């Protein structure tokens, strides 16, 4: 890396699954700066009690925490309406001079909805009830789809096993897995 390049912060695989009226969201704990693992147990999952939701983030931690706080404010302002709050956050994120510089993505699950919220104004509700963000997201997503299709595992078990598979493949994902359930 030459002096003019900033080391790229890489971290996170976050995966959420809805199955049989239950939702689980989990993440690994690894944070990497450049080619170096700097932390093994980063907390990337947050439960929003008053709305019965679980959120997870990928990207810069300070940016993500700022966005999670804003999302919580939107949920309170809109009476816990998940989709409306997500759209309003995405709108603010895209148009606000300060917020649009934030580099993070959010994954949100409730017992019946799963959303990905991005800084480009996207609010994505996957058709299969699986959300995945971060460095190892495509590995975890692939594993989760296979486990849903070919097993009777619970949402929590699918998230856990899929994150383990991602950790075996992605160098930016570890096996210090935290899973929450609603």
Order of helices and strands: EEEEEEEHHEEEEHHE
Spatial strand arrangement across the major sheet? 6-7-8-9-10
Decide which structural class fits the backbone.
alpha+beta
What sort of overall outline do the alpha carbons produce when their principal axes are compared?
globular
Count, helices = 4
CATH topology, what is it called? Glutamine Phosphoribosylpyrophosphate, subunit 1, domain 1
Q: How big is the Rg?
A: 16 Å
Largest sheet: 5 strands, antiparallel
Please state the average pLDDT score. 87
Number of domains: 1
What gap, in angstroms, lies between the N and C termini? Answer: 43 Å
Protein name: ATP-dependent protease subunit HslV
Main location: cytoplasm
InterPro entries: ATP-dep_Prtase_HsIV_su (IPR022281), Ntn_hydrolases_N (IPR029055), Proteasome_sua/b (IPR001353), Proteasome_suB-type (IPR023333)
Binding site for Na(+): 167, 170, 173
Tell me what you see in this structure.
- The protein is built from four helices and twelve strands.
- The protein has 182 residues and is of the alpha+beta class.
- It has one domain (9-172): Aminohydrolase, N-terminal nucleophile (Ntn) domain (Glutamine Phosphoribosylpyrophosphate, subunit 1, domain 1), CATH 3.60.20.10.
- The strands form three sheets. The protein has a five-stranded antiparallel sheet with strand order 6-7-8-9-10.
- It is globular and about 40 Å long.
- The model has no long low-confidence stretch (mean pLDDT 87).
């Amino acid at each position: 890396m030459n002096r003019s390049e900033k080391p790229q912060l890489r971290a996170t695989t976050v995966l959420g699954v809805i199955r049989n009226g239950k939702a689980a969201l989990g993440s690994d704990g690894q944070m990497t700066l450049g080619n170096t693992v700097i932390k093994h147990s980063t907390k990337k999952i947050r439960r929003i009690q008053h709305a019965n939701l679980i959120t997870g983030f990928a990207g810069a931690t300070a940016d993500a925490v700022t966005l999670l706080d804003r999302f919580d404010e939107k949920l309170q302002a809109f009476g816990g309406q998940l989709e409306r709050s997500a759209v309003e956050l995405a709108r603010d994120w895209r148009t606000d001079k300060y917020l649009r510089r934030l580099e993070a993505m959010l994954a949100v699950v409730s017992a019946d909805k799963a959303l990905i919220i991005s800084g480009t104004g996207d609010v994505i509700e996957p058709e299969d009830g699986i959300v995945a963000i971060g460095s190892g997201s495509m590995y975890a997503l692939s594993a989760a789809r296979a486990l849903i299709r070919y097993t009777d595992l619970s949402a929590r078990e699918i998230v856990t096993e899929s994150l383990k598979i991602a950790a075996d493949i992605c160098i930016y994902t570890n096996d210090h897995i935290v899973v929450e359930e609603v």
